[in-house]
Design a protein that fits this description.
The protein has helices at 3-6, 35-44, 46-60, 77-84, 96-106, 144-153, 167-176, 211-220, 237-240, 242-247; strands spanning 12-16, 67-71, 88-93, 111-114, 128-134, 154-165, 189-197, 200-208, 223-229, 254-261. The chain is α/β, with parallel strands linked by helices. α2 crosses α3 (46-60).
Length: 262
């Protein structure tokens, strides 16, 4: 596949002023409304296919035979990759549209359920060896209920592997846009972007918090941090996305954690 083919399905992003979305915030994060366009982009784009997902799989390592929960599984790309590596995977997501696409990808036998991260999860205590939370925690203002539930369904000594927007990167985005006062690093703040993909536009709203707040949330929920990672994209991306990487040589978008349930 050529570079142009890889970049055909892209997501362009524009920072939106908080005042312009405060009136109708219910229209943000409606993944069912753009499930197919988002999935097409996620399959092949730089940040998901050649940066975040390979990093998550590398941190997971050998998952053969491990009972794994994909928290916020979306259309099932990470679920499928973990299953291909021998994991016994279950997944949940709040978007019925995304789960419909996951079902097409994974087959009717896949254990997929509609559930909200942060609410009660439909799994018994001590069910899983691993939980993967790929780019989902930053949609929550309060991490405490979600982490408590994820800890509950993990066995003692199990792992949670999580990725989130890098707080330094989010702060830099706002500073570069002249909006540093709207997203101060040491505050927990809501920020919104307008995504354009596949002829559609949608609002996506997330929460940014400083690194120390993330660490305190994890340890307060009974996790011990074993890895904090700031990886580079997969080496294959340097040829496929040469212009994008050259324009931003640091390419620091996400922060990754491996946590052990105490």
């Amino acid at each position: 596949m050529t570079s142009s083919e890889h970049q055909e399905h892209t997501i362009s992003s524009r920072l939106v002023s908080p005042s312009s979305v405060s009136v109708d915030s219910s229209k943000s994060n409606d993944y069912s409304s753009f499930a197919e366009a988002y999935t097409a982009a996620n399959e092949t784009n730089l940040v998901n296919a050649y940066y975040e997902r390979p990093a998550m799989l590398a941190l997971a390592g050998d998952v053969a035979g491990r009972r794994t929960l994909d928290a916020g599984c979306g259309s099932g790309l990470l679920f499928a990759a973990l299953r291909d590596r021998g994991a016994i995977v279950s997944g949940f997501d709040s978007s019925a549209g995304m789960l419909g696409l996951a079902r097409q990808r994974l087959g009717d036998g896949a254990d997929l359920q509609v559930a909200d991260l942060g609410g009660p999860l439909p799994y018994p205590d001590d069910t899983f060896d691993d939980v993967v939370a790929s780019l989902v925690l930053h949609y929550l203002e309060d991490w405490e209920p979600a982490l408590a539930e994820l800890r509950r369904v993990l066995r003692r000594g199990g792992r949670q592997i999580a990725s989130v927007d890098h707080p330094f990167a989010v702060n830099l985005i706002h500073r570069d846009a002249g909006r540093g006062g709207e997203c101060k690093y040491f505050d927990t703040t809501n920020w919104t972007v307008e995504w354009s993909m596949g002829g559609q536009t949608t609002l996506v709203s997330r929460w940014n918090r400083p690194l120390h707040a993330m660490i305190e949330a994890f340890t307060g929920a009974g996790f011990r941090i074993t890895v904090i990672s700031e990886p580079e994209p997969d080496p294959a991306a340097r040829e496929l996305f040469l212009e994008a990487i050259a324009a931003e040589p640091r390419f620091l978008c996400f922060l990754f954690f491996v946590l052990q349930a105490d």
